[in-house]
Amino acid sequence: MLRAFYRHNDPKLVAVLQSAGLAREFREGSGSWLIGKDGRHYLDMSGNFGSVALGYGHPQIVAALRSSLDRKIPHVAPYGVDEASGELARQLLDLAMLPDHKVLYCSSGSEAVRVAVQLSQESTNRECFLSLASHHHGIGWQQSEHLVCADVEEMLRAVQGQQYAAVVIEVCAGSHPVCLSNEEMARLKHACESSGTVFVVDEVLTGLGRTGLAFAFHRSGLRPDIVAVSKVLGAGVVSSAAVLLSNTIYSQASTVTGLSHLRTSMAGNSLALTVGLAVMSILQDEKLIDSVNQRSTALASGIRDVSKRTYCFGDPTVCGLLLRVPVIDEMGKPDSATAMQIVQKLMDHGVISTLALKAPDCIVFTPPLNIGPSEVSYCVEALKMVSKELFGA
Ligand SMILES: Cc1ncc(COP(=O)(O)O)c(C=O)c1O
Prior knowledge:
This protein has helices at 2-8, 11-19, 47-50, 59-71, 83-96, 109-124, 152-161, 182-195, 231-234, 247-253, 270-285, 288-309, 336-348, 373-391; strands spanning 26-30, 33-36, 41-44, 102-106, 129-132, 146-149, 166-169, 198-203, 226-229, 241-245, 317-319, 322-326, 351-352, 354-356, 359-365. With 393 residues, it is α/β, with parallel strands linked by helices. It folds into two domains: 19-50 and 287-391, Aspartate Aminotransferase, domain 1 (Alpha-Beta Complex); 60-285, 3-Layer(aba) Sandwich (Aspartate Aminotransferase, domain 2). Helix 4 runs antiparallel to helix 11 (270-285). Bound molecules: pyridoxal-5'-phosphate. Pyridoxal-5'-phosphate is lined by residues 49, 108-110, 113, 136-138, 170, 174, 202, 204-205, 230.
C-alpha cells in the first residue's frame, strides 16, 4: 500500500516519514487506539491533529453514519431544506452562547476560515486582513490581501493605523505553545470595535470542548463577530465545518439569495449533519466537556513528573486536552532535533504524537476527548521510558 502511495501520491512525504521511522500502515481503530497491519497497538495522542475527537468506532457515531447512509439521501441541496441543518445550528449557537448568530456550513476548517474572511471583506468593503505568524489557519490564503503580524502588539498597531476587513486569531493554538491572554483578547476586540474591523476567532481545533470549555473564547467572556469550528464536529469521520456569524455580518454580507454565494457543493451534507448531531449528544450524554480538564490534569501532572527528572522538558502549556510540551537543551534553548527524536521514540513505544507546526521544538498532544485514565497512564509511562532511553533519567 505504501508503495502505491509513494508512486501516485506523495513520494517525498513517504521518504521523510520512512527515514524518520514514522511511516505506519494501520488496519483498524478502536477507541483511542490504532492497530497496525502487524497487529501492534498505538495509542493515538494526536487523533489526526485533534479531528478524531471521540476516538475510533464510537458506537453512536457508527450508528449515525449507518442511519444516514440508510436514508440514501446524502445531500438535499440545492433546493432541499434539511431539518437537521436548523437543529444542529441551534445546538451549536446554544453551546457557543451566541443565540443571535447564524450558522453557515462548510466542508473543511480551511474553507470555514476562508469563508469567515470573505464574509468580513463583504461586510466591511475592505480587502486586507490580519493574522498572527504563530497561528495556523489552513490553506488557501491570498498573500496579497493578508498581513501576517509577528505578535499582538503589531496586530494592534495595524488595526488602529489602517482599515482592515478582519483580525483572525486563535485563542489557544495547536501550532504554537503560547495562548492569547484575556487581556490581549479584550484589547484586540476593543481595537476591532473602534475601527470597524471584524473580530474572527478560529476555533477549528478548539471549538466543542477541546480546551475544557465549549469554546476557547468563552474564557475571555467576549463575543466574536465570527467563529469558525470544524474538527470535533466531524468526529474524524466526515469533513465538516461551520461558521457562526453575527446578525450584523449576515445582513451586510448576504445577498437576495442569502449566503448561497458562499456555499460549496457538499457543505452541510446529510452525513455531516447527522454526525454533527450525534457529536453534540455524545458531548452532552457523556459530559465530555466537563471532564476534559480532569483528564488533562492527570496527563499534565504525569508530564511534569517526567520533566522533573530531566532538563529536556519545559513546562507544558495545557489548554484542556490540547497539551504542548516544549523540548529544551542544556542551555534552556528550544531543541527541535531532540523533540523529533522524542516523537520517534514515542512511536516506537506505541504512542502517536506530533510536533507543533510553527514551533517544531514542541510536542503536541490532542488525544480523543474521551481518552481513559489507563490510556493517560500509558502515555506517561511511555514518556518515562523515552526519557530514560534518551537522557538516562
Ligand atoms: C486552528 C486551525 N484552523 C484551520 C485549520 C485548517 O483545517 P483543515 O485542515 O480542516 O482545512 C486547522 C487545521 O489543523 C487548524 O488547526
